[in-house]
Amino acid sequence: MTAALELSDIHKRYGETDANRGASLCADAGEIVAVVGENGAGKSTLMKIAYGLVTADRGQIFIRGESIPIAAHSPDRAISLGVGMVHQHFMLMDPMTVVENAVLGREPTRGLFVDLGRAARELVELSETLGLGIDPWAKVGTLSVGQKQRVEILKVLWQGAQIIILDEPTAVLTPGEVRQLFSVLGNLAAGGKTLVLITHKLDEITTIAHRAVVLRRGQTVAEMQKHDLSPTAIAHAMVGRPIALEIDKPACVRGETVLAIDDLEVAGRGAEPVLAIDHLEVAAGEIVGIAGVEGNGQRELCEAICGLIRPRQGIITLAGDDITALSTRARFAAGIAHVPEDRHHRGLILERSIADNLLLGRQDEHSTRLGLDREKIAATCRRAIADFDIRPPEASAPAAALSGGNQQKIVIARELLRPAPKLLVCAQPTRGVDIGAILRIHEAIVAARGRGLGVILVSAELSELLALADRVEVLYKGRISGSMDAAALARDDAADRLGEMMTGAGARGAA
Amino acid sequence: MRREATLIATALLVAMAAGSILILIYGQSPARVYVALFSRTWGSTYGIGQVLFKSTPLIFTGLAVAIAFRCGLFNIGAEGQLAAGAFATGLVAASVHAPAVIAVPVAMIAGACAGGVIGAIPGALRAFTGAHEVINTIMLNFIVAALILWAGGEGAFASGTTHTALIDLRAAIPDLGIEGSAANVSILIALAAAVAVWFVLGRTRRGFELCAVGENPAAAENAGISVRAMTIWAMTLSGAIAGLVGTSTVLGYKHYFEEGMGRGTGFMGIAVALLGRNHPLGVVAAALVFGTLSHGGIAVSGICPKEIVDVLEAVIILALAVGAAAGHLDKKRKRA
What we know:
Chain A is an alpha/beta fold and 511 residues long. Helices cover 34% and strands 25% of the residues of chain A. Chain B is mostly helical and 336 residues long.
């Protein structure tokens, strides 16, 4: 039997880095294949090559047995050959309806006119057979993230896709939505479609994939069959060495209150505040997890604590002192450490060296009257590089040259090595970070808690919150919609319950 | 670093090639013109003196533009800032009657303050209202020129002239003693300014913060740096350095401020900063290149029209701008 999609010995070079150097993949009809690998392993590049968005330097592409010349491949051609792609960042126009979005580029016509009615009928039919529950006349802008994703799937199916590539489809979904998505994908596979799934979530692979193709540094290093798929085995193949996935966390020893927030309100664009918190407390030696679908006030919470945005009202106290009126600089001096959610946006200056980035935000303690204290900076660099295993271990290397994990280690090292931190505000500390670095970062956060820091941990990864947090508060539309203590977090249904609270179900105090 | 060097070398070569074509069309030998261009500038003490004299104001304006650039700001107002500064220097040097150790610094500080104020205005507008500094610095160039004319008419200019009264000669900066050349000690002040800027940007907290704002304002903010304050500070410093041009032209050369003095030097400062890659020591080197061309144009005017050398300058700037834009595109493509 010929494979539905076969990529063989693909090579692609960007400047001086090899994104793919001998990557291969084979997927049959009716199969769900997971493409896994650490960040920068070349998963996305390989999939973009399959879809024709990126032209490979060398290699072979076969779609349903037909050899495609790599230079002549394009998305248009891919679509006409029955390949569809659902991107991580949806390619939908919010002001347009579902049906308008679906037909974009392939408009069915009757005479001179676009026949939207026919397309809508076809979409309804498709939607019903798959149980997607999508109204073709709804404006895309009014749909939830999960629904938008289903629109994307509907769109590629309507365009006749037999092979569907999904790039990190679960990254933006709640646990409930993930389950729904997986049942749709299961139905599609049962109906003979081929699904290729890029992901880095190990548990998802074991749940849904029939097979996993593991990429490491641009090469296919392993192909694992369903019965061989276990998180440990996949992690091993991805990293190339055995790796521990669990972290030892001693019992929580709650100390004095480090952070207290009362009646905090941050104005949004509309009348509704983007953040409205009646009361939130973090004690020394405690990790308070903040769960929530992205964009529900997490960023505003962190930035309000750090003084990067001004709240409309409310009081923030740090170890008993009112810091509401203090500048960011004064707050850091008072003992706040901040790992921002997007290291490229707020965390680092990519063009600058590791040393300069370790200095960023800590320039005051590294200055003398005569200027910057170069010896002290060098000492801080040595310590950060050694303690956090930053690679390459050269203080003069530009941050841009480092992997995501090592870049994040710079930020974490800088913040945790502050002279006397009391509170760590830590957002998405392991986003886009490879497995080895994740463990190192988790250890550092737990160690900070052991040293008596209060920690606020914002994360989109429920598994991260469940592994680290002593208590989780859920944000929904800027308000705390529920919370779970350690006992509740230890129960088997913790992830599901968090998921419910994240979508506002069973909301407490929510408007 | 190597990319930068290649870019600069390419710009200079492209300019020479373009110049050669023009010289050939004019009917001269490019080799002869280029040899003359070099020997009549760097081949004699007089030539060197003139190059240094022409380069001095360019060092100041180049530094001014570079500092703003490093903070992510495009100061096109060095023109107005230097005019205000030189005007203030001229007035103060004419009215302060004191020994040189007092008169010279006071006149210089007056220039820096006047330039600094003119720089601070667009800086503050940018910081508080978001109004773009490019528009406001350009507008201020016209406003400053008009204000100087008005003040001149109201008695700041010696009656019947378009220049201020002669300064108290104790405030004059001595020349370098090169026969016939206007080269004066202010070149040393310009070099000292370059070293000071290098130190501030590379070795002090304030400089580190200034560059951080230029490179990633969001990260700078997260580092406790006030982007607003830094914007105002950078524009003030930029204007103040441009305001020092009068040190060379007023105190070192004419001994009075004259309407239109130093015109164009502010805009040339943009080219100098561009060629010097916004590095203070690069700015000095770039100022010497443009200073050489500026005097060289006059020096070869016997062989070919001076305008050919102007074209050389223009082509260098154009090639650098294209190169910089291409580099920018390259980066974007890599990110995609």
